[in-house]
Amino acid sequence: MAAGEQRPSWEEYFMDITLLVAKRSTCLRRAVGAIIVKDKRVLSTGYNGAPTGIRHCLEVGCLREQLNVESGARHELCRGIHAEQNAIIQAAYHGVSVKGASLFCTNLPCSICAKMIINAGIQQIYYRSGYADAISKQMLQEAGVELTKLDTDRQGENS
């Protein structure tokens, strides 16, 4: 590290990893990354894309685009699994508890992911951008999940 440079905060560090994970996305509409962290350790990662063994939208096209489905609506019309879902699934697949963990995500989770996050016991979410799903934020707040928006210069601000 060059003289005068500061180490990134833990939040900056984990969000930088999340942004790198998002680069693996195979979604044609939005590249999303998510990581689950507990005790300053990465438990699992996930990005949005089709299930294992299923062709990705990069190969077959996007049904949602073809049908002009707006962002945040009709999630069932998608081959892909959301990044947050993939991160939770990966933890479960490997027998890792996410209870009491934090989720870092490039976007505020949708309402489907919010329900999974609540029931998985994740207590805090750090995100960069919003998402077109008002119910999500309402449910997360009602469940006591702490939401922290990290803006583009990565200075934390509670929402």
What's a quick, concise take on this entry?
With 159 residues, the protein is α/β, with parallel strands linked by helices. It is built from 6 helices and 6 strands; from the N terminus they run αββαααβαβαββ.
How would you sum up this structure, described in words?
With 159 residues, this protein is of the alpha/beta class. It has helices at 10-22, 57-60, 63-66, 83-93, 111-120, 134-142, and strands at residues 33-38, 41-47, 102-107, 124-129, 146-150, 156-158. Strands 2-1-3-4-5-6 form a six-stranded mixed sheet. α5 (111-120) runs parallel beside α6. The longest helix has 13 residues, at 10-22. The chain is globular and about 50 Å long. It starts with 9 loop residues before the first helix and ends with a strand.
What brief labels describe this structure?
6-stranded mixed sheet; 21% strand; disordered C terminus; 6 strands; alpha/beta; 159 residues
The whole-number mean of residue pLDDT values reads: 88
Strand arrangement in the largest pleated sheet: 2-1-3-4-5-6
Globular, elongated, flat, extended or rod-shaped: what is the shape? globular
The structure class reads alpha/beta
Largest sheet data: 6 strands, mixed
